[in-house]
Each structure stands twice: as C-alpha cells, then as structure tokens.
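The protein record quoted in full:

***
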Amino acid sequence: MSCSGGKIPEDADPENPLWQFACRFWALPRAQQTCLELQELGWSVTRILCAAWLTSCRRRFSGHEADAVTSWRKQVTEPLRSARKYITKNDSRTAKVRESIARSELEAERVELALAYQALVSDTSTGSGEEATASLARNNLFAAAPENTMDNGTGRMLDTLARELSTLSNGDNKPC
C-alpha cells in the first residue's frame, strides 16, 4: 500500500473499525490525557491507538508501520499540529485560524488511521494466543514507543492506558 504524492487509495475508508475504536477510546478521560502526555514526549498517538485496537482484537502489534502511514504523518499531520501549537491559545485575533487548523489536524489523523487500518487488516500475523490482555496491552504499547523513551513515568502511563483499554470491549469493531 502506498500513498504516493499524498494520493490516498480509493479503498481507504475513514469510517473504519479502527477509527470507531479510537473515538471510543479517546472518550475515556484518562486515555485521552495520557495519550496527549505521551505525544508531548514524542510518541505518535496513531501508533498508540493502533496498538490499543490490536489489543482489543487480541492481536500483537509488531511496531512496524506502513510507509504510507509514516509519510502521511510527516507530510500532513505533523505540520498541521506544529501550526496549531504555534498559534497562541485564547487569542481572539487568531482563534478562528487555530480552530480551523485543529479541525484539519483531526481530519488528517482520521486519514492516517484509515491508512493504518488498511495495513493492519492486510497483515496476516497470528493472534496473541493465551496472553493475558494486560500483558498484551503493555507489550503492544511498548512496541508503539519511539526509541529510548521508556522510564518509570512512561511505564506508569502505559499501565494507565492498559487499564483504560480493559474497560472497552471490541464490540462490533470487526474485522480485526
């Protein structure tokens, strides 16, 4: 799967089960806050969401990411995030611009998750077997980590995400 020149494959559905899961997971206050804290430490929230979704599907996350996902993040999502962060919060003169960029950033993340979903469902790797959900969650989240970012504080954040994840079930989010 490629995303040459920003062209998104026709079958990349933004309303996919990964996006639906991400919306449910993001609605959990501790999950959202912890993801944002990890993002400030250099983590990709998309990778965290992929790891969490695969855990809900009882599948391992290898940490490998399709080139299309990485390219989209670097060329589209991250520049939008940088622009949003550059604009001062609570400044009425720039509020509309900042809000517009924030909406665009969310839509870029949605496309990023559509690309990730395409890659993840085409991956035929095996499930997790009998591995306990908490252990699988921690291992999957660890696989989502950028290099050299694990310390006690980060470990506690991963434990928080694993606990939040245990409150969700996969529900109708098929296929996994």
Q: What stands out?
A: The radius of gyration is 16 Å. The chain has one domain: 14-123+132-166. The longest helix spans residues 95-122.
